[in-house]
Design a protein that fits this description.
Blueprint (H helix, E strand, L loop, with lengths): L3 H11 L8 E4 L5 E6 L5 H10 L2 H8 L8 H8 L6 E10 L2 E12 L5 E8 L8 H15 L4 E7 L3 H9 L3 E3 L7 E7 L6
Parallel strand pairs: 5-6
Antiparallel strand pairs: 1-2, 2-3, 3-4, 4-5, 6-8, 7-8
């Protein structure tokens, strides 16, 4: 369980390079997670997180087998500026340790006003509502930072992402190149009326 004192200590240790926002939220099973922006100091957490993902989860996220120790992959995952490239991590307090159990991220696309997003949840924490929580915070950040459209491109057989996308209002379509992938797209502009 996260106490105010524990969260304050975690945030103080991170310094002030990133937004000082955070949320403590309950999953479907009652477990509380801390969701906050990714920081440079989270490199070891991110490395451990990649190490706990199954081959199927890695393939669903990265479309291929991933060399988990690849420095370039970790460098890419840690590259955030909190506006054009944003990431939120979800952490649990388990056996006296902080453990990363999920991450959501977006990165600006070439098309102005558009960003591409992804969500990955550790295998044993899937189907507990964590992906939904991470996606909601990511959508809010993208809107705050002026993006108009959020897209996600996934393998057509990634049913967890299809379900998550639909629940958050994304519209889906197959690209012109075939049906191996599916594109989920969300209009981020505020509704009038």
């Amino acid at each position: 369980m996260f106490t105010d004192h524990t969260v304050a200590a975690i945030l103080a240790a991170l310094g002030d390079q990133a937004p000082n926002e955070h949320w403590i939220e309950a999953l479907n099973n009652g477990t509380h997670v801390l969701i906050r922006p990714l920081h440079r100091q989270d490199r070891q957490l991110a490395f451990a997180f990649l190490g706990q993902l199954s081959a199927e989860s890695l393939r669903s996220r990265f479309f291929a087998q991933v060399e988990q120790s690849a420095r370039s992959m970790l460098d890419y995952l840690m590259d955030v500026d909190y506006q054009q490239r944003m990431a939120y991590i979800a952490m649990i307090h388990e056996r006296g340790q902080l453990t990363e159990v999920g991450i959501s991220r977006y990165a600006a696309c070439i098309d102005p006003g558009q960003c591409e997003c992804s969500v990955v949840v550790a295998d044993r924490w899937q189907r507990r509502g964590l992906g939904t929580l991470l996606m909601r915070h990511l959508i809010s950040a993208a809107q705050r930072n002026g993006f108009k459209t959020m897209v996600s491109i996934h393998q057509a057989n990634n049913f967890a992402m299809h379900s998550l996308s639909r629940s958050q209002g994304f519209h889906s379509r197959y690209p012109a190149t075939g049906e191996d992938e599916i594109i989920h797209e969300l209009d981020l502009t505020p509704r009038r009326g």
